[in-house]
Design a protein that fits this description.
By secondary structure, the protein is α+β, with helices and mostly antiparallel strands. It is built from one helix and four strands; from the N terminus they run E-H-E-E-E. The protein has one domain (about 10-50): 2,3-Dihydroxybiphenyl 1,2-Dioxygenase, domain 1 (Roll). The chain has a four-stranded mixed sheet, covered by helices on one side. The longest helix is centred in the middle third of the chain and has 10 residues, at about 15-25. The mean pLDDT is about 90.
Length: about 55
């Protein structure tokens, strides 16, 4: 199988606001806020949907 494109993926993070600060200020990504407190980071036509959750080591 060969992947030809990717619309989005989900990144589980410990703290959404800290993640937004990094990706927005350092990498210049745009923040998109949806209903139900959902958040995505946009770069070009692609996006990273953020999900806050418990990270296991």
């Amino acid at each position: 199988m060969k992947i030809s494109s990717l619309d989005h993926f989900v990144l589980t993070v410990k703290n959404i606001e800290k993640t937004i600060k990094f990706y927005e200020s350092i990498l210049g990504m745009d923040v998109i806020r949806f209903a139900d407190n959902r958040v995505a980071l946009k770069f070009g036509a692609k996006k990273i949907n953020l999900h806050e959750g418990v990270l296991n080591n």
